[in-house]
Amino acid sequence: MGDTKVVPITYEHSMENYNDVALITTTKTVKSEPKISRKFTKKLLLDILNFPFMFIHKNFQPGDIKGSALTIFASTVGVGILSLPYAVNISGLYQGIIIFILGIIVSLYTCQLLVLASEKTGEFTYELIGKALYGPKMKTFAEINMIINNYGFAVAYIILLKDLIPNCLKMLGVVNATATNNYLWGCLVCILIIYPLTLKKKISALRYTSLLSCIACIYLSIVIAYGFFTTRANDLNSKIKEAPPAEISTYSIFTASSYVVFSFTCQNNVIPIYQELQQRNTKRGFQFLLRGLLMVFVLYLIVGIFGFLTFYDKYHPITNFPVQILEADYGEDNIPIIIASIAIAITLICGTPLVFQPCRIATLSILFQKEPTKKQYFFIVTGLVFSALGLALATPNIGYALNIIGTISSPIVCFILPCMYYIKAFPGKFTRYDLLIAYAVLVFMTFIGVSGFVIFLMDSFF
């Protein structure tokens, strides 16, 4: 009787003899076999679905070099990747590659400046480093620019969603004008999903959105490269040889640079990642930055070059090239592109509330000296979300948003402030080699930002 373990099985009627108990026990054992099988199948399915996350968790521990490199990779790759073929198109193949190379060099350099400034001051937030070096006014200035940058990201995300979801439906064969209305989908997604999630102070359920976005972008790069080699299988060499090599003009250089600057935005995440680094020192900090940004660079090259080579001869003039590559003429029955569109749409929906979060925190920090009331919190979040929705609906396409962010807030946050921090943290004669480079990057990126914004205004209104 001890081996059968009938104690957990309870029944309302009494069991008066051994035969009854044995019969019930045997019957119970026979019925439980399918349940064990179902549990095993369910566990196996969950293990398969969780494998990518478990593999990354096991091999890329938080705080080690590989884990930190993966984190900087995930925090850099975003919606800007969709516009990189357009950036190559307006600048030409080889000129576009040069702009990409300059983009990663300057981005890596300024990230290293932030690590050095953080180590020098002992502070581990963007704003507090500014306060330690320049005082409270710099803290406020940094917060304002972080608000503008993240708010711009949110607007860009909503613009992309309002265009991407209808495009997915069209590729699936939906032709109804109301069902594919951009403005309708922008409002629905923002009101029903993004706004309620942004109201929550903690969005722990969306903590894997960066990883999902990363996977979606890697899949996108594979699909775009595969699309080029399959659609252009008969004329690969001629497509590369006949591709426009360069477009030397003020418009092409500064516009393409603004897209690349936006795409390499990661500086606001560098300091928190560096803070969690195991055996923290500047050398290990430089190592994870180099590895992470090199992965980003390779991914960007694949998407930018192959997306451009696939379609550059289908759109004339060059400015008619789609601003985001998923709107290119891949065909309605292209299942991989449909999957990529849906995957990126899902990660954007999950990621937009997270983009609003630092914007909300910085706004509340500037407006209120103490913890805001529930009413104040509600009105601030509501104002941020619905003003962003209004701007997104009024903006024709994501190119306008990326251009503005890439010429105003991104250069300040990603390039100008890191140089200013380093110059203040390590004072000396400007002729000193390291300071000379910092001053040169500071002047150059300021010039790029101002010139790009002026050209954007002239192109838009004149």
- The fraction of residues in strands falls at under 5%
The CATH C-level name of the largest domain is Mainly Alpha
State the CATH topology of the largest domain.
Amino acid/polyamine transporter I
Number-wise, the strands total 0
Helix content, binned percent: over 70%
Q: Topology as H/E string?
A: HHHHHHHHHHHHHHHHH
CATH superfamily of the largest domain: Amino acid/polyamine transporter I
Q: Classify the oligomer.
A: single chain
Protein name: Amino acid transporter transmembrane domain-containing protein
Domain Amino acid transporter transmembrane: 68-457
Membrane topology: Multi-pass membrane protein
GO molecular function, one term: L-amino acid transmembrane transporter activity
Can you describe what's shown?
The protein is mainly alpha-helical and 462 residues long. It folds into two domains: 1-35; 89-461, Amino acid/polyamine transporter I (Up-down Bundle), CATH 1.20.1740.10. The protein has helices at 18-59, 65-76, 84-91, 93-121, 126-134, 136-171, 182-199, 209-231, 236-242, 250-263, 267-275, 282-311, 335-367, 374-394, 398-407, 409-425, 433-461. The longest helix is centred in the first third of the chain and has 42 residues, at 18-59. The radius of gyration is 27 Å and the shape is globular.
